[in-house]
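Reminder to self: tokens first, then the designed residues, so the page reads top to bottom the way the pipeline ran.
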């Protein structure tokens, strides 16, 4: 039986969040460590590499994980999951060739990355490997905790290597090999766990190409905006000094850690909403609205706390050389509540209803807006300009989604008007 269909207890959800806690605390520990050990210039190089690696990962993943979760949640047996698994692997394999070529060109054109021996190849290959992560498979079959445990173990090993081997600014050439080793270890563990659940890795070319076709619209929406977000530090590294890249990168990592708190709920509840949408639409909407209330309230609180404490907290944690990041963080934190709205609308309302076309149109339009403002702002205002571009991009996406939802006549459904639930219950206490 597919365990995603079983009732979800509060204890299980809490267990997943506790498991994820290490995953989200990890970058918060690693960022100040890199900043203090490598300095602003060295950390700028690391951020440029991570940015490009994430961009390669997002391209090779190509929206496959969303389609995979939606397909796998409807299966009952390993025989039904086998073709889904193999077409997912083959489709990623097909995209590795263009990703490798484009990634290497971008890496060698970066003044920061090209100065570190071996960094260009390791950054690109690490991103490609990360795209083969099996988180979508574990969560789609009701084994989110297995995925989290593998990630936590990988992060523990990676942290041990980093804290042991990276002790001075000259050790920057060790950062990217260690990142590659961390990705390889996590990937190996995941495939060992599921090795008996599939008959092979390669699917017929026709099925892999069909998956690419079905995933294109989701990639255009989520992938386009995500690629721009992931490439922000890399773009900034082309136009600005390493210190500007560090100022933006520190702020972006902190905001990213805040947004990633939505991950555990999404890991458990997005497949559940996808399953319920055709069976109990009102309950699926109820879950989505309550998730929105929780995370939007947290995002607004995050804005207030960040603006109140950033002046002394950032220099205290990262060092006085990162004081430039304070105004950048104060601007970038506005992304939190806007991004929460975008993610809830996309993941919990539109994608489960197969409204990818609406998402794609909004994603492309907002990406154009983002690029149009990011390059000139980054060129003339550095880190602050890139932060402002991020806020403008997220706000434009939300405005476009709101117009699209209104035109699609989904407002009543999203607000729960006409559901059998009373008004207070629509946004009442948490009851998955």
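Designed residues (432 positions):
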């Amino acid at each position: 039986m597919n365990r995603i269909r079983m009732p979800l207890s509060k204890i299980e959800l809490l267990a997943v969040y506790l498991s994820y806690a290490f995953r989200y605390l990890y970058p918060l520990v690693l960022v100040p460590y890199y900043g203090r050990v490598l300095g602003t210039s060295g950390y700028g190089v690391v951020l440029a590499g991570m940015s490009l690696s994430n961009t390669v990962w997002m391209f090779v993943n190509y929206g496959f994980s969303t389609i995979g979760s939606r397909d796998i949640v409807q299966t009952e047996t390993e025989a039904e999951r086998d073709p889904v698994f193999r077409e997912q692997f083959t489709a990623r394999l097909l995209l590795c060739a263009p990703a490798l070529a484009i990634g290497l060109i971008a890496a060698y054109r970066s003044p920061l990355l090209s100065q570190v021996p071996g960094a260009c190849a390791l950054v690109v290959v690490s991103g490609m490997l990360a795209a083969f992560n099996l988180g979508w498979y574990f969560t789609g079959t009701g084994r989110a905790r297995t995925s989290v445990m593998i990630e936590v173990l990988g992060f523990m090993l990676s942290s041990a290597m980093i804290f042991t081997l990276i002790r001075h600014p000259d050790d920057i050439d060790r950062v990217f090999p260690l990142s590659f080793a961390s990705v390889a270890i996590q990937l190996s563990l995941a495939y060992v766990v599921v090795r008996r659940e599939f008959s092979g890795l390669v699917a017929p070319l026709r099925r892999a190409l069909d998956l690419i076709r079905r995933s294109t619209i989701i990639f255009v929406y989520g992938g386009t905006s995500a690629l721009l977000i992931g490439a922000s530090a890399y773009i900034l590294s082309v136009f600005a000094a390493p210190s500007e890249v560090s100022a933006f990168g520190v702020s972006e990592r902190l905001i990213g850690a805040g947004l990633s708190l939505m991950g555990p709920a999404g890991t458990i509840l997005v497949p559940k909403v996808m399953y319920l949408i055709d069976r109990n639409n009102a309950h699926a909407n109820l879950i989505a609205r309550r998730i929105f209330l929780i995370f939007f309230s947290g995002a607004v609180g995050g804005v207030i706390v960040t603006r109140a404490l950033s002046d002394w907290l950032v220099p205290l944690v990262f060092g006085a050389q990162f004081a430039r990041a304070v105004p950048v963080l104060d601007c970038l934190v506005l992304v939190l509540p806007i991004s929460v709205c975008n993610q809830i609308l996309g993941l919990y309302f539109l994608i489960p209803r197969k409204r990818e076309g609406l998402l794609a149109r909004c994603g492309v339009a907002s990406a154009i807006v983002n690029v149009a403002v990011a390059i000139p702002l980054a060129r003339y205002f550095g880190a602050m300009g890139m932060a402002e571009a991020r806020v403008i991009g997220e706000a434009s996406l939300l405005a476009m989604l709101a117009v699209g939802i209104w035109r699609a006549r989904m407002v009543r459904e999203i607000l729960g008007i006409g559901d059998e639930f009373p008004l207070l219950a629509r946004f009442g206490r948490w009851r998955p």
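The longest helix spans residues 10-61.
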